[in-house]
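Board notes (copied after class):
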Amino acid sequence: MLSKTKSVAAYKVGQIFYQVMITDDGCPAVEEWHVRTIRGGYVHAIWKLNRTTWGKRSSKHGDFGWLARIPKWCRKKWKLDPAAVYSFDRIPDDFKTTKLAAIRHEIKSLDPLDYDDPAAFERAGKALKSMATRARGKKK
């Protein structure tokens, strides 16, 4: 399935994308991906993860920010070209601009065959629906 791609002007440094990941036991978590740079025809996004990519930068002051070394497993990149042929050159299908959209995408793509335990599938479905209800009720 081809993902809907955005135009080149749609990406901005500092833009946030959301992705929902579900563990094997059925516990969902929303992850934040921040666009750090746009260069060389690629968009570079970093997973905001406490104490790994984001944290306290100084021992004396209370300033927080991106840490110096970002592991490779916390980085993703894709081409700006909307006509990218290969799947690794396009924005991941599960990257959404709002938390609610990411949760809804995960609810639609939920498959019972992905889980060994039917109870974990039910837990994941229940948790995602309650997350969607909470995200729908929040005001910005």
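Comment from the instructor: The first strand starts at residue 16 and ends at 22. The chain has a mean pLDDT of 87.
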